[in-house]
Design goal:
With 370 residues, the protein is of the alpha/beta class. The protein is built from 10 helices and 19 strands.
């Protein structure tokens, strides 16, 4: 079928539609990773976003259950230059086209993705409509313009779990052979703001007991569990709109060690009195250089965010520990008095591959000390 991508500024891209039929709106963004498309598709942080991959060919490794970061596909749509007609991987249990159709998501290929990405970089991210079928393009543009904007959107309540649960799964690679799950280990409570499975595995790998709780869980409910630490996960939307979580985190300051990733990093900054701001086109990909200001080392990190912590905010005495070397945005914080730290990037994605895994070890050390 003919497929369309209609941007709110009137720009139209036409290609080949596949996956599910119909229309869907979302914020059009791009990801520069060379691999990992299945992790992208199932990352809740991409909720209500139409993702464009800059790599030329997508789909050649197929689909497998091991690489899913959540139980469903969260992207609003998926745009690629070329969909691989062949699947060649020993773990593959299906192909990308059937996977998107199964989950009711629209795919679009044969698109000039280089022109699309240049347009986003020049104009900034914007609302868009992705369509698979016979549609009037003017109607698709109007649909994009009438769709909700990402600024001010609290999407956490749409992706968080409905009830608390214990996570016991761990990783299998030999690298983790000394970090078996310990049912008597320190308890860490993880706020599910759109949490990825590999984050949870990296916590249990290190001997922690992990209880995942919904985003609406209050500070008092967390403290009743008597945790040795609290983790704040990644997630979608505007961090300043997640007011209930910010309030809960403020009630936990100084009472337990805390570690935040991505949205969790932004939530911690807001709870400390800082501010966040919408970025022009965000950071999404596995090749972002991060400088650790405490050690002077540079890490290659995976990013997925459209908002950033403002350097001009007060931050309640927190120290900036990491900077993104591409644009000097805040990539890490710590507050010694409160025993908390956070990073804007995703150490669990490990593109380095192990550049940033020390952050999980630091959290475990603080948890065990507490």
């Amino acid at each position: 079928m003919t497929g369309y991508l209609a941007l709110e500024d009137g720009r139209i891209f036409q290609g080949k539609g596949w996956g599910a039929e119909g229309t869907q709106t979302g914020e059009i963004v791009f990801n520069t990773s060379m691999t990992g498309y299945q992790e992208v598709l199932t990352d809740p942080s991409y909720h209500r976003q139409i993702v464009t991959m800059t790599v030329s060919h997508v789909g050649n490794t197929g689909i497998n259950l091991e690489d899913e970061e959540a139980k469903q596909v969260w992207v609003a749509g998926f745009v690629v230059r070329a969909l691989s007609p062949e699947v060649s991987n020993w773990r593959s249990a299906g192909n990308l086209e059937a996977y998107l159709k199964q989950h009711g998501k629209i795919g679009l290929s044969d698109i000039a993705t280089r022109a699309l990405v240049r347009h986003i970089r020049e104009k900034g991210v914007m609302r868009a409509t992705i369509a698979n079928g016979d549609y009037d393009t003017d109607d698709l543009v109007d649909m994009a313009r009438q769709s909700p904007d990402m600024s001010g959107a609290n999407l956490v309540n749409e992706v968080t779990c409905s009830m608390a649960y214990d996570w016991t799964e761990r990783s299998d690679p030999q690298w983790y052979r000394d970090h078996a799950y310990d049912p008597t280990g320190p308890l860490v409570v993880a706020y599910d703001l759109g949490i990825k499975r590999n984050i949870l595995r990296l916590l249990t790998d290190r001997g922690l007991r992990v209880k995942v709780v919904p985003a609406q869980t209050s500070a008092d409910e967390i403290l009743d569990l008597q945790p040795a630490g609290v983790f704040l996960s990644n997630g979608p939307g505007d961090p300043s709109a997640v007011e209930d979580v910010i309030k809960s985190v403020q009630g936990l300051l100084g009472k337990t060690p805390m570690f935040g990733i991505c949205l969790g990093h932004q939530i911690l900054a807001l709870a400390l009195g800082g501010t966040t701001e919408k970025m022009r086109f965000g950071h999404r990909g596995g090749n972002q250089p991060i400088k650790n200001l405490l050690t002077g080392q540079v890490e290659i990190a995976t990013h997925n965010h459209g908002f950033a912590v403002s350097k001009d905010g007060e931050l309640g005495g927190a120290e900036i520990t990491h900077l993104n070397l591409n644009d000097d945005t805040v990539a890490g914080l710590r507050h010694s008095d409160y025993g908390l730290f956070s990073v804007q990037y995703h150490p669990e994605a490990a593109p380095g591959p192990h550049d940033s895994l020390y952050l999980f070890d630091q959290f475990v050390e603080r948890v065990k000390q507490s």
